[in-house]
Amino acid sequence: MEREQMALYLTAYGNAEQKDKGIVRLVFNRVNGSIRKESTYPLNGKANMVIDLPDQLIVSVKGPEKTTLDFYGKNGIKMREVATDLFYSFASPAEGGFLLASYESGADSFYDLTADQIRKTVVHKREGYEKAGKSHFIHHMEDGRCISVENSLQQIYVYKDEGLEIEDVINFPQYAEKNIRLLAFSQHHQKAYLNTELTNEIIVLDTKEFAIIKEIKMTDEKEVFSGGHAIREDEKLLCTALRGKNVIVVSEICDDGIPDIKYEFSCGKTPRDLKFIGDYLLVSCTDSNCVEVYQVTGEKAYKIDEAEVFQPITFAIDGERK
Questions:
Q1: Is residue 164, in this structure, part of any structural domain at all?
Q2: Radius of gyration in angstroms for the set of CA atoms belonging to the chain, rounded to a whole number
Q3: Helices (H) and strands (E) in the chain — how many of each?
Q4: What is the pLDDT of residue 181?
Q5: Which DSSP string corresponds to 151-187?
Q6: Beta partners for 61?
Q7: Fewer beta carbons below 10 Å: N end or C end of the chain?
Q8: What pLDDT sits at residue 2?
Q9: Do the domain assignments include residue 238?
Q10: 3-state secondary structure at position 267
Q11: How many domains does the chain have?
Q12: How far apart are CA 163 and CA 217, in angstroms?
């Protein structure tokens, strides 16, 4: 593959004829922003997340009869599968031959890739809450700590390291049902940006104690839900998808690390996930059956290209610590 081109992977639910159901391999040109679908690695079940490691792809698959962790070569050949009891809604790659995984059922795990088994699991709990947890995000930070977002119980779990020893649990107010969702990080500003699915806010947190610094409202419109969330590599722009309104909100990150909303631009239906590659923003538009590419600046976004993918969901997580 030429130097300006790179392979990208994402999960897709596919259409009624099962086309694109599985892991979709895309080829993206980092110079001109063009994108094309190259192939699909079929899966026997539903997958939300795929991990892109240098020598393999790892995906959690919820099939009709069992849930497995599947291992694929970059050529699309399945190497092995491991039966698991829980469905990984998100998994964060880390150094040392292990995965950090979060589950839709509200738990985090340390998964040993060498032994193919879970070493430790932490179940999310909150006093006064009878409902079950639901987790969407876990991240291995540069300082070694691990951060997990509990969507249903409205908590952030801060672990001392990948061993999942709890350092702190931040409880968001019970009276304000926000459905906290995803975190984006600015290492330069030592800030984290948390979006809320129901109230459509960007909550700015410090990355030392994860205390709230500021809450920024993106919209008051009804039936609009905040979803995908991505920060540009130079940490100067933050983009957030709003499903229902089908727009991307673009915020400029100021010198103090606080986002300043500049504008929004229309995209395909049901923007699900966002991924920055240089100045290009990739958007998986589930109900438009495509992946769109935009060149995003602080003043305007320009659509560059799109590739047809039936029901695209989530872009692969790169196999290295960010």
A1: no
A2: 19
A3: 0, 29
A4: 87
A5: TTTTEEEEESSTT--EEEEEEPPTTS---EEEEEEET
A6: 68
A7: N
A8: 62
A9: yes
A10: coil
A11: 1
A12: 35
Domain assignment of residue 179, given as a range: 5-84+172-318
58, two tokens: 């790892």
Pairing state of beta strands 312-315 and 5-12?
antiparallel
CA distance 300 to 297: 5
Q: What is the pLDDT of residue 283?
A: 98
| Spatial strand order in the sheet of 5-12 | 35-42, 22-29, 5-12, 312-315
Q: Is residue 166 part of a domain?
A: no
pLDDT at 92: 83
The amino acid occupying position 255 is D
Q: Which of 282, 322, 320 is nearest to 55 (CA)?
A: 320
Does residue 161 sit within a domain? no
243: enclosing H helix or E strand: strand 237-243
Phi, psi (degrees; rounded to nearest 5) at 297 = -120, 180
Closest CA to 148 of 164, 133, 137: 137
Q: What is the pLDDT of residue 88?
A: 83
Per-residue H/E/C for 67-105: EEEEEECCCCCEEEEEEECCCEEEEEEECCCEEEEEECC
In the chain, the amino acid numbered 118 is I
pLDDT at 86: 80
Strand partners, 271: 285
What is the rounded distance in angstroms from the CA atom of residue 97 to the CA atom of residue 244?
39
